[in-house]
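Final report, Chapter 2: Outcomes

The project's central promise was a pipeline that accepts a single protein chain and returns its three-dimensional structure in a standardized token representation, suitable for archiving and comparison. That pipeline is now operational. To close this chapter, we reproduce one record exactly as it appears in the project archive, with the input sequence first and the structure output second.
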Amino acid sequence: MKVLLIQPPLVQLNSPYPAGAYLASFFRTMKCEVCFLDLSISLFYKIFSRPGLTRIFELTEERALEMADKAEREGDQGTAFNLRRYVSTSDSWCSWIDVITAILCGDAREKEHELLFSPKAPRGSRMENFLNGLGREPSVDDVRFLCSYALADLADYITAVFDSNFSLVRYAESLTVDESSFSEIEKRLDSPVMTEFYRELLEEVLDQEDYGTDFLVGITVPFAGTFMPALYTARYIKEKYGSKAYVVMGGGFVNTELREADDMALGKYINALSYDRGYGGFYDFIKKTEASGGGMAFDSTPIYKFRKFTKNGVIAPDWKGDEHITFIESSATRGTFPDFSDIDFSVYPRLCDDKNPMQRLWSDGSWIKAYLAHGCYWHKCAFCDTQLDYVCGYEMTDVERLFKSLYRTAWDHYIFGVHFVDEAMPPLALKSFALLNARAVNLGGNKPLYYWGNVRFEKSFTYDLAALLSYGGLGGVSAGLEVATGDGLKNINKGTDIDSIVSACAAFKENGILVHAYMIYGFWNDTAQNIINSMETLRQFFAAGLLDSAFWHKFILTKNSRVMEEWEKGLHPELKPIFPEGKSIFARNCLHFEGEKRFAKWGAALDNALTAWMHGKKLEMPVRKWFDFEVPSPTVPKNLIEKAIDRYEERKSAPVKDIEKREIFWLGSKPVACGKVNKKGLRKYSWIYMQEEFSSEFEESLAELLWKLRPETEENLYKKYLQQIKKSPEVEKLRGSGLVII
């Protein structure tokens, strides 16, 4: 069977989204002929290229000048100036756009000087604000930032003058997540970017291949901002191929917002919705297609986790599946790894939109995206979709096979960074991956991977484990702090406490691992005191150097969350959900609740404070002063985090128990002899650990043994050396100066 997998626009620009790569790998194990198209990056270049911008300015010049005249009449001189400047300098933008994108892809280094200093180079308001805010003379090292802001300036122009739905990393998101009927979505489907650029792109890429009589099309819809382009894609394919193409949509947005969608109008665009992981459903589909004689016209037959739209109505999914199907799903989850062979990583621009090092990880680098485990091993937080498979369906991958696959991909594409997109990377899997990565030198390569992703802040992440993970390539973690108070963490059933969170953050930071925290405010039972206490605790985290960055989210109530499940059982009487009137296909998961609007005013101050803290500013300013309305004073102790750090230090230096059951690794540099052997048969050795020099006296045999206990040592040899080191009385003394015990 031929399979066409499509990532529609628009997702993050710097890396390909992984869903298509995972499905491509899975379908190839089933002997399917697969083509994976990333149309998100293709549409980007369709617009942000010389021909694309030439077309944009041709289509918008008249309207832009009309808008400028109107703005001037209304006294908005800034808008009038900017719109006229875009039109007046359109030739410059068209001449430079290919250079700008090339610079962001790591090419055209010589042109960076010209873009920065030439008076003929284009400028927009974001570019100028960046340059003016430097507080110094700009240098060529600032040009990647300048190019990133150039794209943002152009996106602003396109949104203002050409297509209000457009954004660099999403399309028509607000319309899609609104309580809209499907007919309202259909009315706006033929929007300017879709008709003027995307349709032509679809014609170009689909005309390059003969897909045969019958073929399967999988369209992934990870976010709300990809749904309208996905729908447009499906409609075009149906118009072009008719019944030859069996079109299926899946992905995160489908799993949450379209889980109960049964509007027959969807049948004009697609044949089915695929829920959750997709492996079992597509396996069931292919096997039943083969059993039917090769055709796809088995409309009345239910498919595992497929909602089918047929001429005779909607066929509900087979949610349970038989034992064989669930075995296939589980096996594929553990043993399917992303196949990026259809992807050219060199065309993905690495944007620089913030000087904060942790914030930069998201956009600055063409990461290979993968997961260590499907689902979350905790899956009990009150606000999470704990009833859905992407959270509650926890399953580990085969870590060794995953590493080998990612390492091959890294060398194939010469991209050595991995972004793990797990809900929460399991500590045990991280440890295994770190050791495999350290031992990569034994595979004949000398470029171990650098990786980052989501974790849970918990006590498992000790100093020693964090040190090993850092040695093995872990460079950054993000995790939910959510409510930075003890009572708040209990109320949302976070399964951790402030001491454990502080310990994890301190362990990561001490070992050079960047740390990001997700925060939430505006819970159904939130109060002004809770929010201000959480904000004060967060300030203390930053002041103590435990966090590099964070982000505030406003709480969203979802139908499939733990709190809604408990509410339906009679718990949380203070929660008053508001169920939408009428029938909207998009209001099935996200719900409003009584009183949620009272928290809207908090957002600006929380964000402003956080922006300052992430850049090391105003950390001593009382949190109340960020607000232009009355808020209570924090009641958390001013030394809350300081005291928690003290307790962390005590635990870190406490003697290790049950050393016979532990693993021991040497992370320091090679111990080198200093001077001669003394009368006791000992010799002074020195080494470097954490950029500091350490020294101690011990026997030469111990120096040799320590070096053999590096994580790079092959496992069978390591086990032999481990038993030898456990007999040494020096083990405890060397801990913290290069030796870790896990």
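Archive annotation: Residues 2-41+173-335 form a domain with the Rossmann fold fold (CATH 3.40.50).
This record, like all others produced under the grant, will remain available to the consortium after the project formally closes.
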